[in-house]
Amino acid sequence: MDASFGATLRGVSLATLSSDEFDELTELWLRYRLLVFPEQHLSTTDQVAFARRFGELEFDLAAISNVRSDGTLRTDDGSDDVVSILRGNMSWHPDSTYMPVQAKGAVFSAHVVPSQGGETEFADMTAAYDALDESTQTIVDGASAYHSLYYSQAKVGHRGEDPSSGDYSGYGFHRHATPLRPLVKQHPDTGRKSLLIGRHAYGVTGMSMERSGSFLSELLEFACQPPRVVSHRWSVGDVVLWDNRCLLHRARPWDMSEPRVMYHSRIAGDPVSEGWE
Question: Cα(247)–Cα(266) distance, rounded to whole angstroms?
Fold first, then answer.
């Protein structure tokens, strides 16, 4: 792709990959961090089976959708927990940094797409770290930040005090201690450093809350700029695989009077490399 990362792979069937093909695909994934596979049209069963080839799953399959199980559209008026999560996900983030173990990666597929909008953007935090000036690298190398879904969802007016009261499953609104994670992560497979920031991060160690907020905002603004950003316009049948250990992502807005139905399989992280103490 015309960016610091990302590749589109055609002429491959994810549902029928041989062992050798999967090994080659894994090498490409680690090299490019984001892989897009057009026209796959995977069944949900095949999607889960493909995701499992990368390891244990944090969860098998979740619908990321503004459509209820009965086919009606959810109301975008602030009263629907699921739409509040969709709105929150329109800000840059990695997955599951607010959980005890951060996710390794994700497989995402498009089943229904709106006529306009609804793209997914990705940002390369490895290239972003490399682009920092020396003084900023010194600051981030020695700092950590807390990560919380309560914190990030509160910014869109979603408190999550009683997630069981709505249709949202409550995933992420847990009662574990709040993870404190380094601002700079070393990739367990490639050894490269990347920034670990995004909407869930707050409270940088050694900084006031006010300074922490401005510092993280400035860092995010710098990091998520060309050539470190890719925008994927979905077509039905597309599958995307991304490395959650070094990329951020966000959904782009769309007219929620139109349906958008995506399926997400989340690859679990290794507790040794993706956990926290």
Answer: 14
Q: Is this prediction's pTM over 0.85?
A: yes
Range of the domain at 17: 7-271
The answer to the question of residue 2 being in a domain is no
Distance of CA 138 to the CA centre of its chain: 26
Per-residue pLDDT of the chain (277 residues; tens, 9 = 90+): 999 999 999 999 999 999 999 999 999 999 999 999 999 999 999 999 999 999 999 999 999 999 999 999 999 888 888 999 999 999 999 999 999 999 999 999 999 999 999 999 999 999 999 999 999 999 999 999 999 999 999 888 876 655 444 566 567 777 778 999 999 999 999 999 999 999 999 999 999 999 999 999 999 999 999 999 999 999 999 999 999 999 999 999 999 999 999 999 999 999 999 998 6
In a domain, 34, yes or no: yes
Give the count of domains, the chain: 1
Distance of CA 120 to the CA centre of its chain: 10
Which residues are registered as beta bridge partners of 161?
none
Could you give the 3-state DSSP secondary structure of residue 239?
A: strand
Q: What are the start-end ranges of the H helices in 99-223?
A: 125-131, 134-141, 149-154, 209-223
In angstroms, the CA 47 to CA 52 distance is 9
CA–CA dist 112, 133 (Å, integer):
42
Tell me the backbone φ, ψ of residue 35, rounded to 5 degrees: -125, 135
The whole-angstrom separation of Cα 122 and Cα 190 is 19
